[in-house]
Write a structure and sequence with these properties.
mainly alpha, globular, two-stranded antiparallel sheet, Arp2/3 complex 21 kDa subunit ARPC3, 7 helices, 2 strands, about 75% helix
Length: about 250
C-alpha cells in the first residue's frame, strides 16, 4: 500500500510545485512591471559607506520583485528542465504586453473621480523608457539565466546546485541591471527623447547598488532553492507525464 501511494504523492508535489513556481514567477514579474518607475534609496546598515554607492543603495522599485523571478526560474529549471523553463520565460515575456495593455486601457478609460484617475496615472502610467528598458532586459537576462544554469548542469549533473544557482543568477542579474538602467535612464532619454537622462555618476550608482542587492539575494536564496528542490523532487528523478515539455 505504501509503495503504491508514493508515486502519487511525488506527482502531487511536482504538480503543486509547478503551479506555485509559475504563480510566483508571474506575480513577481507583474509587480516588477508596475513598480519599475519608482527609484528607491535604501540606507546601508550601521552607517556603512561604500565606494560609488555611498551610504545608501539607489535602485528601481522593481529590484526585489524582479530578483524573485530569477529564484523562481532557477527552481523551475532544476525541477522541470531547460525547455519548460525557457517556455515559462518566453511566455512571461509575451504576458508583459498583456499587463501593459490592461494598464493602458484602464488609464485611458473615463474615471468617475478625477482625483483618483490622476493618482492612477501618476502611479501606474509606465513611461516609454521604462517599458523599453525592462522588456529588453527581461528577454536577454532571463534566457541567459536558463542557458547558463543548464550549461553548468551538463558538467555538474545534479550536484553543485549552489554553483549553478549563484553563477547563473549573478551573471544574468549583471546583464539585466546594465541593460535596464542603461536603456531606461540613459539611451532612451538621450536617443529618443523620452524620460530624463540621469548623470553618469547617478547611473553608475544605480547599477552598482541594484546589482549588490540582487547578488545578496542570490546568495541568501540558495538554501531556499535547495529546500524547494528537496520538497518537490526533480522531474528527472522520476518521470512525470504532467510536466511541461515531456
Amino acid at each position: 500500500m505504501s509503495n503504491a501511494a508514493a508515486p502519487g504523492n511525488n506527482t502531487d508535489r511536482q504538480a503543486i510545485g509547478q503551479v506555485a513556481l509559475l504563480g510566483l514567477f508571474v506575480t513577481a514579474l507583474v509587480t516588477a512591471q508596475v513598480t519599475a518607475a519608482k527609484l528607491l534609496a535604501l540606507p546601508l546598515p550601521f552607517g556603512v559607506e561604500l565606494p560609488i554607492v555611498g551610504t545608501s543603495i539607489s535602485l528601481p522599485g522593481a529590484a526585489l520583485a524582479y530578483a524573485l523571478t530569477f529564484f523562481a526560474s532557477d527552481c523551475y529549471s532544476e525541477l522541470y528542465g531547460r525547455r519548460p523553463a525557457q517556455l515559462m520565460v518566453n511566455v512571461g515575456f509575451a504576458l508583459n504586453f498583456v499587463v501593459l495593455l490592461l494598464v493602458f486601457s484602464t488609464l485611458e478609460a473615463s474615471g468617475v473621480n478625477p482625483e483618483v484617475s490622476q493618482a492612477f496615472n501618476t502611479a501606474l502610467a509606465p513611461s516609454v523608457n521604462i517599458v523599453l528598458g525592462s522588456l529588453l532586459a527581461y528577454l536577454v537576462s532571463q534566457n541567459w539565466d536558463v542557458i547558463v544554469f543548464h550549461k553548468i548542469r551538463e558538467f555538474t549533473g545534479q550536484g553543485h546546485l549552489w554553483l549553478r544557482n549563484i553563477a547563473s543568477t549573478a551573471s544574468s542579474q549583471a546583464i539585466d541591471t546594465v541593460i535596464f538602467i542603461g536603456i531606461a535612464f540613459y539611451l532612451a532619454p538621450t536617443l529618443l527623447g523620452v524620460g530624463s537622462a540621469l548623470p553618469q555618476n547617478v547611473l553608475l550608482g544605480l547599477i552598482v547598488g541594484q546589482y549588490l542587492l540582487k547578488l545578496l539575494i542570490a546568495l541568501l536564496d540558495t538554501p531556499v532553492v535547495y529546500l524547494v528542490v528537496r520538497l518537490v523532487g526533480r522531474v528527472s528523478d522520476k518521470p512525470n507525464p504532467t510536466a511541461f515539455g515531456n
